[in-house]
Amino acid sequence: MSTPSMRARVRAELTEEIKDAARRRxxxxxxxxxxxxxxxxxxxxxxxxxRYFASRDQLLTALITDAYNALGAEAEAAEARVKRGDLxxxxxxxxxxxxxxxxxxxxxxxxxxxxxxxxxxxPSDTVSPATRxxxxxxxxxxxxxxxxxxxxKPARRQPAALRPDLKRLLEQWPEDAPMPPPSGPRAxxxxxxxxTAWVHLFGLLSFEVFGRLDDMIVTRAEYxxxxxxxxxxxxxxx
Length: 238
Description:
single chain, 238 residues, mainly alpha, Arc Repressor Mutant, subunit A, Tetracycline Repressor, domain 2
């Protein structure tokens, strides 16, 4: 296996420095990145930065992909530390890891879960990193269904109008996903349950990160755990 050339290593290091400077800009300026400002922070001329990122959108895509992957990696590592048979423990580990990452990285969280960036359209290669957390929730529910540790029926059946969307999502399961799609007659129910939890999880995180709980809930961690336990109940986890 050949080692990277000195030029390649220098390029990789400078690329990371550019992204680090852009992240610092996110914390002060939001997603309105200006490449000239990032270049100025690094003591570079703008033309030199354009050799690494051809446009603002390309740099935003790199930051978005990194943020999704960092969040996914934290959730996956936390879930992997829990015994496979402890479904609720795995569920709570994923949710708590997502919250820890969001609170530790509010600017990056805002980039991926805040208001859309005007004029920016994320390319398709951001989809796989963006699904890492919800795929973990799907895996937990699928394991519960396979081992008989999950309630036989959801609290409420999904409407018939939703079924085509669920079927399409299962048919379009990403090839590079870390797990196969849930199978069997309950696959749509499993996916629907995971999507419900995913929406609730990041809705609650957004309320906390964006200050919507200020002057309302003081014991945030306890409130978060309670809400995620309620979602585990609704999902039928033991």
